[in-house]
Design goal:
0% helix, 4-stranded antiparallel sheet, 382 residues, 26 strands, mainly beta
Length: 382
């Protein structure tokens, strides 16, 4: 590439890994013939800094101070599950010249997300010096996949051009780490190339489970939802809280934040075949009258949670009395007293179970399962 003296130079090697492994970039001394170290090698001198973004690979030389040819190498390391499994060392020669036009200005989306199955579509603009001819191009992993992205310059080369990025995503594109696409604008004014880059970060996110419904049973709640769109998921996580949360996730937000107040109640590892869950509080039964609210999240093989479902709430029928208060009034071995209170059931079936009604009160030691009837009431309103 060409650089201009006293002007920032930007470059991106555009490395991709088809397996989806993580890539890390770093600057490295250039090597000589046979991969040998070059005696007295020095990195190119900068008026400010020479850096590379270890995540996106964007190299910024700010700025060259000496005319001529300069060399630096970029080490690209590949990691899988935190383990380094390979690397590539890529050398670049940069020719610093004088009198070149300022680099084009690129504008467009820098950070975005898309729900798997949707089409991601956005425009890129590049503007250079008057009378110049700008060319736009793009590189990145999305162009190499089974459902590839397409980038096309939509205007003829001139001092201001635009391009269209279109990616019809699929469930196969969902992954925990984002995709990087580098857009390159080249200004060919007077035969002196001036170049600039814009790197866009794209997250492809699994969709939320849909049509979550509840069916209330005697002491449990059954959740049902539609078959999940993506086949490759490992299962679902079931979350519950008491009372509505009002939580509304951002478009790119995945999982459930702790601030939403939910607790995970089950981790179903049956792939996408499961579409229901019985919540009976681990066999203890749910409490009538309580407002139970649920959300579910699909999990992919990389372990990351995806967009959470809408919230749905339900209550058990209030058809039994619920003890609401037990207080020790007097502590004594001979004259102790305990006050007990309960809520009146309001939803019992008076046709199937006709009155009259009363409460029977039983008592027993904590260590004993044998309860003795100690009292009864005259009516259900007591």
């Amino acid at each position: 590439d060409n650089a201009c003296v006293n002007s920032p130079f930007v470059h991106n090697p555009g490395a991709v890994d088809i397996d989806g492994d993580s890539l890390s970039y770093s600057l490295h001394p250039s090597l000589g013939q046979g991969g040998q170290n070059i005696p007295n090698y020095q990195f190119p001198i900068a008026s400010n800094s020479l850096t590379i973004d270890n995540l996106t690979g964007e190299l910024i030389w700010n700025s060259p101070t000496q005319l001529g040819e300069h060399n630096v190498a970029i080490l690209i390391e590949e990691f899988r599950n935190g383990i380094r499994i390979g690397s590539v060392l890529r050398d670049i020669q940069i020719t610093v010249v004088a009198g070149c036009p300022p680099p084009p200005v690129i504008t467009g989306v820098e950070d975005t997300c898309v729900i798997a199955g949707e089409i991601l579509d956005f425009d890129i603009m590049a503007t250079g010096t008057v009378g110049s001819a700008i060319d736009l191009s793009a590189t990145g992993l999305p162009f190499l996949l089974n459902s590839p992205a397409i980038f096309q310059q939509t205007t003829n080369p001139s001092s201001s051009v635009s391009g269209s990025f279109v990616w019809p995503t699929s469930c196969d594109n969902v992954r925990n780490s984002p995709y990087f696409v580098s857009f390159k604008a080249t200004d060919n004014n007077s035969g002196q190339q001036s170049i600039n880059f814009l790197t866009t970060t794209i997250s492809v996110i699994g969709p939320a489970p849909t049509n979550l419904t509840t069916t209330v049973q005697s002491n449990s709640i059954v959740l049902n939802w539609d078959p999940y769109l993506c086949q490759q998921i490992t299962g679902f996580k079931i979350y519950r809280r008491q009372g509505a949360s009002g939580f509304v996730p951002d478009r790119c937000e995945t999982g459930l934040p702790a601030a939403a107040g939910f607790q995970m109640k089950a981790n179903l590892s049956s792939g996408n075949s499961v579409t229901s869950f019985l919540d009976n509080n681990n066999g203890l039964g749910l409490i009538p009258g309580e407002d139970y609210c649920y959300r579910i999240v699909a999990c992919f093989p990389d372990g990351a949670e995806r967009i959470v479902s809408d919230e749905i709430c339900a209550q058990l029928r209030d058809d039994v009395p619920i003890i609401t208060n037990v207080s020790v009034n007097n502590t004594s071995t001979t004259n102790g007293s305990i006050f007990i209170a309960w809520s009146r059931p309001n939803e019992f079936d008076s046709i199937q179970f006709p009155g009259p009604y009363r409460y029977l009160i039983y008592r027993g030691d904590q260590s004993s399962s044998n309860l003795a009837l100690i009292d009864s009431t005259l009516s259900i309103n007591d």
